[in-house]
Amino acid sequence: MSEAPKDAVADGDKRTGTLNQADLARIMDVKVEVTVELGRRRLSIADVLQLAPNSVLEFFKRADEPLDIRVGGRLVARGEAVVMADRYGVRVTEVVGPLEHKEATDTGDAP
Predict the structure, then answer these.
(1) pLDDT class for 103, splitting at 50, 70, 90?
(2) What's phi and psi for 64, nearest 5 deg?
(3) Which structural domain range is residue 92 located in?
């Protein structure tokens, strides 16, 4: 069996993991989960069991800080909450670069 020339890879560049336009076109309609994170907080089991209607959970994120927008658990953007008629939305204010993807951690808010 003969090998294809190293500079001609039909299905993208397998050496670098990049995708060509045909590869991208195949996945463009794949649905992914988008999550907007208001904040995180760790609670003891005892505190969780104390939750009841009208309980308020305070988060350590300030009200003027942007919300994290995650795709598949990975930080991809930040934004601000908006209300559209009777629904919530998020206005994207910043798209996170590849370097920030790696630096973003899922450690949550302060204890």
Answers:
(1) low
(2) -95, 0
(3) 31-103
